[in-house]
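Predict structure. Chain length: 276.
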Amino acid sequence: MKKAILVVSFGTTHLDTLEKTIVKVENKIRSKFKDYEVFRAFTSHIIIKRLVKNNGIKVETPEEMLEKLYEKGYDEVILEPLHVIGGEEFDYIKNVYNLYKDKFKVIKLARPLLYFEGEEERVKDYTNFVKVLKNILPECESYVLVGHGTMHPQGTAYWALQSMLIDNDMENILIGTVEGYPGPEQVLKRLKKLGAKKVLIAPMMLVAGDHAKNDIAGDDEDSWKNMLEAEGFKVEVFLRGLGEFDEIENLYINHLEDAILGNFESLGKTKKGVKK
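Prediction complete.
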């Protein structure tokens, strides 16, 4: 039986961080799941177009790649998203999954980095992420982790993470977003309440690409770094994407393994209102 793992990320035009993150994760998956061939897709159509235009690099969309796998006669496909939360881009992947779910003998969809947290002892995505943060962040008085942000209802994942940090006595780690809530105003208010003087700022994103280099650490006065410095904070920039860390990669691989084994397939779902 021909089997494939399709690793799906938002993508990046920054080839340096592409190698450090997405390619690194793909290679780790390739070495662990030797019965599967590993393929790549990006959900950002803008990034896909820019890569072709500027670098001559062609990356398929999820639906383009699934169509190719179908035409090549693959029987089993596992979709592995490298997104941080289950927002708009994950909805896109789910839509494509539903389009192709009847074309393969087996097709499964893994979950993003932050998705489940609840009664099931074996599925604590937020708890596991918080444990990893303790190991990968350099020593500092306080921290601001900046995610992408979204208007999608799953934007509440950022607040759920903040709550989890507080529950674990890690109130000095604050979550902000480039687009959405919480933004700089809310984070600044909480930093001042902490009485912090020195802040380490880092992207809470898979790759340290455009948002990290410009919106977070850029030279413009409205970058997160410059806004914090303008308020009197001594700022240290930690410009590394989450995908650079082995501990984060292992979380994604655990989610992939759950999907292959069929773990938690019915968790958070209902059959009510569905015709038999």
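Summary: The chain has two domains: 3-116+244-261, 125-241.
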